[in-house]
Amino acid sequence: MRPIKHVEKGLTLVAGGLFNTIQFVNKYKPNPSFTPKWSDKPLLKSWQKSKPTLGWPRTTDSLCPNCVIEAREAIISGKRAVSDLINEKVGEIKAQIIERDGQIWMIKDCPIHGHFEDMMAIDSKFLTHIEAMFPGRDIDAHNDEKLHNHGSSTVKYGRGAVLTVDLTNRCNMMCDPCFMDANQVGFVHELSMDEIKEILDNAITIKPRRQMSVQFSGGEPSISPHFIEAIKYSRKVGYNSVQAATNGIEFAKSKEFCREAAAAGLRYVYLQFDGIGNDANSHRQVGNLFDVKMRAINNLHEAGVEIVLVTTLVNGINNDQVGSIIRFALDNPKKIAFLSFQPVSFTGRDEEITEHRRLQQRYTLSHLAHDVKDQVGITEPTRDWFPLSLMGAFADFADLVHGPNAEWGQVSCGCHPNCGVGTAVMIDKENREMRPVPEFLNIPGLVKDMQKITDAARGKWMSNIMMGLTLLKHYNPYKSPSQFTLYELFKKFDKSFGLTGKDYGKVDGNRTVEDIEKRRSDRWNFLFIAGMWFQDLFNYDFRRTEMCIIPYGTQEGEISFCAYNTGIGWRNIIENMHQNATVAKWYQEHGRHEIFAGGKNVELSDPSHSLILNEVDLTRPHKPQMEGPKTAHEEAVMMRKLYQEMVLKQQLNTKEADKPVQIKGLSRKKQEEPAEAVLV
């Protein structure tokens, strides 16, 4: 062990004593909170932060899956008014969140459609730990009546961390599942540049005015004719970070396209990433999709764009890839700094999933924590994982230090603790040595002390000194990577929150290639492993919706991510209200865009890349553990075949079973009418 580690240990002991002494005095007569320029309300003390009811058993407001679908169809057909969603509690029922055999479940009953239940966690101790670490809600949303007025689905707290804007519902892939049912809704919904500008302008005019990021999504945003211009405009009007959620095809095809996007101001790409090897990506029905991902990462990194890998996890289908993906990131620390695992949301093409398949494929944040431990051997579920909202405590401290004259507040991930969790690993880029951050930094203790500093509100420099002491106090040098030092710890913290004003490379709209290289020159990579669990109709909780940190910017205002994509289905309604044309009409006027499906390969002029691949992970065959139909399409084919054989007494081959069948007379009510089938 390096001698410096012993010196650092001594410093931590001294710092702990000094911090406790100062804090004994500091806790008396704390300074009042100030109201910064970016807010109409003062900063909150920790004891002023409200919390939703947590723990179990508890009662919450949820939705009946069948009532919602019926109401949505009635609104889209014109039989009900859209205003009903604002003025009435459409489809709302009560739900109970309970513990059962060491697991957490949501159970609910509709007087019309009966009983529903779904799993929320396989490990009640994990969720207990996560909820216990929740620091409280952000400042109430305010000054935003025009943007946030969506009845029970209204965002009530904070400002959000990432504004999502769907540029188009067109896509160059056709995946199952797809939460927005891209390419198959029968019409095109694509924003004009004027609409994009209006959405972006509206978002930054209201308070609290936090350092918002904007993520362009879709469909596939890169095929929008306004993609580059939208990035430029976002940077121009002040968005801190511009992102794109993409399948990577267009970026893999062209280095020039990557350079153009980077020059426009694209900072992050959220890259759809299902696993290692083409076999692990085969369910997307693109022959060489893994090669596409490798080339996209290569091209984007060369252009100066940072990459976040995004994986939709389905239990029994691809959750065995968790370890492979993490090992891939650990092997490529200079190129990958963030992993976002997203447990499947049964919506879009999977909204009417059978109960049997849903319960088999349900994957929760607790599944993720255990899979990381079991497949990689790092992190303990009830020690090393925390709610994403814990970052709000760091944002509060930074807001204090930046003072009352700051034009923007810090990004605050103030989502419900059931929405998102995360852990972090520190990696040496030179030798790839790594350690889970909670192993050498006492996160709960650090957050508790940081809240004390923020509550005292003693000014910028005193607060920074106290922050330095508490970092020392909770740091264990014996557990950190061998080459990691206290200096690197302070530097990482300062770099993340800009506390001292030191230049680590600009990230704003004026950043240069030199700024990018300067930020990348850091020897240490802070790999963040996050889990974001978006709701569906079976586990919907309005306490989560009202705290959303990823609102959608639309022609009808800003709507919670889950209320837009699931819930009552604002996406379906708004896109119908503002559709550009039928698909046929669009193709007639604009031509067909290329769609990669049915095993088709993406043509790559140069498939080479510089990424390190683990041969064991690369050659491991992808074998889903789940038996029976695994997708909505497979399920529909099976049900159609069974209906024909068992009800109509007809024997069908597989090809015939793939033909559509219209089943009439099936009711969603408990008492169903006899059904008849008509082949079409």
Question: How would you portray this structure in words?
Answer:
- By secondary structure, the protein is an alpha/beta fold.
- The protein has a domain at 634-679.
- The protein is built from 25 helices and 20 strands.
- Strands 5, 7, 8, 9, 10, 11, 12, 13, 14 and 15 form a 10-stranded mixed beta sheet that branches. A 4-stranded antiparallel beta sheet has the order 1-2-3-4.
- β13 (420-428) and β14 (434-436) form a beta hairpin.
- The protein is globular, with a radius of gyration of 25 Å.
**Helix count, DSSP H or I runs of 4 or more residues:** 25
Low-confidence parts lasting 5 or more residues at pLDDT below 50? 660-680
How far is the N terminus from the C terminus?
Answer: 74 Å
Mean of all residue-level pLDDT scores: 89
Helix content: 25-40%
Structure summary, number of beta strands: 20
The biggest beta sheet is recorded as: 10 strands, mixed
Structural class: alpha/beta
Give the DSSP E fraction (strand runs of 2 or more residues).
15-25%
**What is the molecular shape?**
globular
Rg: 25 Å
Looking at this protein, list some descriptive labels.
25 helices; 36% helix; 680 residues; disordered C terminus; alpha/beta; 10-stranded mixed β-sheet
Question: In brief, what are we looking at here?
Answer:
The chain has 680 residues and is an alpha/beta fold. Helices cover 36% and strands 16% of the residues. Helix 1 crosses helix 16, helix 8 packs across helix 9 (289-303) and helix 15 (443-456) runs antiparallel to helix 16.
